[in-house]
């Protein structure tokens, strides 16, 4: 099975986040076959309450017309949480490609119920990144997803 270059870019973002001391979740926003925004979870690095990977990729894409978002696909290494799913719905991004949802199941059903085409790759590199991170930094992980255990 060939790797998807856009998921590869999202994984590279996740690795960058890990290398910076953050949580290894990455994302890219793709418009007409080109990456227009890339990002990674930077809550730790920036002391932010909202900079998940998807939010960072959207921020780094800059302000776009609604017509652009409606032709985009967002790639993310981990199933999108409620906040990130809300942003996907708000901007009417029609497709989401998810690296994995074994270590965390986000709001995929909400996305699907609203007509978002959602694909889960079960990408082993994404699973390994998150499993290793959660094992080494459980408190940081639980903080990021808003739980205590």
Name the strands of the widest sheet in spatial order.
Answer: 2-1-3-4-5
Cα separation of the termini: 36 Å
Q: For the CA atoms, what is the radius of gyration?
A: 14 Å
Overall body shape: globular
Profile the largest sheet.
5 strands, mixed
Describe the structure.
The chain starts with a helix and ends with a helix. With 149 residues, the protein is an alpha/beta fold. The radius of gyration is 14 Å and the shape is globular. Strands 2-1-3-4-5 form a 5-stranded mixed sheet. 46% of the residues lie in helices and 20% in strands. The protein is built from 8 helices and 5 strands. A hairpin with a 2-residue loop joins strand 1 and strand 2. The longest helix is centred in the first third of the chain and has 15 residues.
How are the SSEs ordered, and which strands pair?
Blueprint: H1 5-19, E1 26-31, E2 34-40, H2 43-46, H3 53-61, H4 66-69, E3 72-78, H5 82-90, E4 95-100, H6 108-113, E5 117-120, H7 124-136, H8 138-145
Helix pairs in contact: 1-7, 7-8
């Amino acid at each position: 099975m060939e790797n998807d270059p856009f998921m590869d870019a999202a994984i590279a973002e996740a690795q960058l986040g890990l290398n910076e001391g953050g949580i290894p979740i990455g994302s890219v926003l793709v418009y007409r076959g080109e990456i227009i925004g890339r990002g990674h979870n930077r809550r730790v690095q920036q002391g932010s309450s909202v900079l998940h990977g998807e939010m960072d990729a959207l921020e780094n894409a800059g302000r776009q017309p609604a017509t652009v978002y409606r032709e985009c696909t967002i790639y993310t290494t981990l199933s999108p949480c409620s906040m990130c799913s809300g942003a996907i719905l708000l901007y009417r991004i029609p497709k989401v490609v998810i690296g994995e949802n074994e270590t965390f199941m986000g709001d995929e059903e909400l996305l699907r119920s609203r007509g978002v085409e959602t694909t889960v790759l079960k990408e082993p590199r994404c699973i390994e990144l998150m499993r290793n991170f959660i094992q080494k930094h459980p408190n940081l992980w639980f903080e990021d997803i808003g739980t205590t255990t």
